[in-house]
Design brief:
Layout lengths: L1 E2 L16 H14 L2 E5 L5 H12 L4 E3 L6 E4 L11 E4 L4 H11 L5 E5 L10 H10 L2 E3 L7 E4 L7 E4 L5 H10 L7 E5 L7 H13 L5 E2 L3 E4 L9 E3 L4 H13 L20 H5 L5 E3 L7 H9 L4 E5 L11 H11 L4 E4 L2 E5 L7 E3 L5 H13 L3 E3 L12 H10 L4 E4 L6 H12 L2 E4 H9 L2 H8 L1 H15 L4 E4 L9 H6 L6 E5 L3 H8 L12 H19 L2 E3 L5 H11 L8
Helix pairs in contact: 1-2, 1-3, 1-6, 2-3, 3-5, 4-5, 5-6, 7-9, 13-20, 14-16, 15-16, 18-19
């Protein structure tokens, strides 16, 4: 898929998917509770669908509604009709494989869990060791999938695990802890915890089900508890998916205004706006590793060299994300290197078009799209992988592209607004509208209208028609006198989201073009005198609202090229 760069800022607020991290935790707890429960506001991301189907294979009653945005458990608990051997293919869903490995240990019968080629490379040995220490019977020859788990009833009540391992291993243990006969205390060894925000999210979900989780510096204790999930359990918006929009807004100098996100969420990615605002050249992502690739893109537009730390878990994700990030940025001309598990990015360099091998990794495809939209474009080797977390991601991208702000061409009469506008619209594939032509289509020829009803009434209606012409992805040729009418104040105060281009032109050229036209005089004076007076009055007004100025004497082709080269919807950060 080819991602072309945006030309102007867009004018919308993104609608985000619900959190697959929240959904998958809620799915496990709702299943284990054996109570009626409906998860609402669920996005049918691949990982969520795989978790629901895996629970069904284990015998739980997880059923989607017809609209595909709710999952209902009927309260029958696990169906015990069969405890025959079963196999669950988790494909590339690491959370699904790890959570269901723990759940399978509590379910009668034998369960084999496997995945695709990359999943069979990702480590699960630390979780296998912990489950074995609790008494589970597990066959796992390689430290990765496939593994076979024999369900049983007797578990120890305490286990130790390295806090530097995947947070998913710890969450898997905590999720089954309430249904173990004596509960479970998870003790952390020495060293820092990675991705601790995801453990916090797990604890939040447990508490939502009535579990009194006890935390200390070195352990988490979960007592045996009858799980009582909410009858209707809404899945919150996804702060991980919001990272794309947070970075995009920051690079565009815009305010991030999402719909449906909880600012008090336990999701660690909600801290991304705060992280980007620090101004530091060393950014620790240990608590929001899913944002590493988005932040790397952000760094590419920063004139400084930035070091990203806290990335140790990225080697074992859907791709080796440290290596993949180096390849992504290198493909578009950004100097970047890995130093151990750190990334060092030299920002502020000119970008080029590049091809990005997404390796089936949704985070890489999403970050690559961001890089293409704000840079010089990219080609993604595979775009379908985004369905792992957000099936509608490219629908959102299309909505962004379709809401790009209009380009308004202003200047004196005869400056070439219509000619330049048509050429520009054709070059960028946008629509074109001339406000004078739109006025005449509604009210007839301008000279006759002015003669019968006067200039004040013309200016009033011109402002109304101009407002109606301001559609997304449109090049608009403004009337020369629009800056003397009521619409000027809206342009001056930036109430109208747009890019204003001022086309300068020499007075003698303007006079030559106008002499043969039927436009009525504003003053009754000779055309050269009138133009000189208009320039003195209108030029400062156009200059006060213009983001781009095309100097006099240029050809139409040169103007179009200059405007295109200046249409960048992002800034270089200093």
């Amino acid at each position: 898929m080819r991602i072309e760069p945006l030309l102007t800022l867009d004018s919308g607020r993104p609608r985000l998917p619900s959190s697959k991290s929240h959904a998958n935790r809620a799915l496990v707890l709702a299943a284990l509770s054996g109570r009626p429960c409906t998860l609402t506001c669920v996005t049918p991301a691949d990982d969520v669908c795989l978790m629901a189907s895996g629970l069904q294979i284990l015998g739980f009653s997880a059923q989607w509604n017809d609209a595909g945005d709710e999952i209902r458990f009927d309260g029958s608990g696990r169906q015990t009709g069969s405890s025959a051997d079963r196999t669950i293919d988790c494909e590339l869903a690491g959370t699904t494989l790890r959570f269901l490995s723990a759940v399978a240990a509590t379910v009668p019968g034998q369960t084999t869990l496997t995945g695709n080629a990359r999943m069979r490379e990702r480590p699960i040995g630390a979780l296998v060791d912990a489950l074995r220490a609790l008494g589970a019977e597990i066959c796992c020859d390689t430290g990765s999938a496939p593994l076979t788990v024999a369900g049983q009833q007797h578990f120890a009540s305490k286990v130790e695990i390295d806090p530097g391992t995947s947070s998913q291993f710890i969450s898997a243990l905590l999720l089954i802890a309430p249904v173990l006969p004596n509960g479970l205390e998870v003790v952390f060894g020495s060293g820092p915890r990675v991705s601790s925000s995801y453990i916090d999210l797990t604890i939040r979900c447990l508490r939502d089900c009535g579990v009194e989780v006890q935390q200390s510096t070195n352990s988490v204790r979960v007592p045996p508890t009858e799980l009582v999930p909410p009858d209707s359990w809404p899945i919150e918006g996804d702060w991980s998916a919001a990272g794309f929009h947070v970075v995009k807004a920051d690079l565009q100098g815009e305010v991030f205004e999402p719909i449906g996100l909880d600012p008090a969420s336990a999701q660690g990615d909600r801290r991304l706006p705060e992280l980007l605002s620090t101004g530091s050249t060393t950014l620790d992502l240990s608590d929001l590793p899913d944002q590493a690739m988005n932040v790397a893109v952000w760094c590419a537009f920063h004139e400084k060299t930035t070091r990203l730390t806290g990335l140790s878990t990225l080697r074992g994700k859907e791709s080796d994300r440290i290596r993949a990030t180096v390849a992504m940025l290198t493909a578009v001309g950004v100097p970047v290197r890995s130093e151990g598990d750190d990334l060092v990015i030299e920002g502020g360099h000119p970008l080029r078009f590049g091809r990005i091998e997404t390796e089936g990794d949704h985070r890489l495809a999403i970050a690559g799209t961001l890089l293409g939209l704000l840079g010089e474009g990219v080609e993604l080797s595979d775009s379908n992988c985004v369905s792992k977390s957000d099936p509608n991601f490219f629908g959102t991208v299309q909505a962004i592209r379709s809401s790009q702000r209009p380009i308004l061409l202003g200047g004196l009469r005869g400056a070439g607004k219509t000619t330049t506008g048509r050429a520009l619209a054709g070059a960028i594939g946008w629509s074109f509208v001339d406000t004078d032509e739109a006025f005449e289509a509604e009210h007839g020829p301008i000279p006759e209208f002015v003669e019968s009803r006067g200039w004040p009434e013309f200016r009033r209606l011109e402002a109304k028609i101009t407002e109606n012409c301001l559609r997304p992805c449109t090049v608009v040729a403004l009337g020369g006198g629009v800056v003397e009418g009521p619409f000027f104040d809206r342009l001056r105060t930036a109430e109208v989201p747009s890019v204003v281009v001022f086309l300068e032109e020499h007075l003698d050229t303007l006079a030559e073009r106008i002499r043969g036209s039927d436009r009525p005089s504003l003053t009754g004076r000779p055309i050269t005198e009138e133009l000189s007076e208009l320039e003195q009055r209108r030029r400062p007004r156009f200059e006060s609202i213009a983001q781009i100025v095309c100097q006099a004497g240029q050809s139409v082709e040169a103007r179009v090229e200059q405007i295109r080269s200046r249409l960048t919807p992002r800034r270089v950060l200093r």
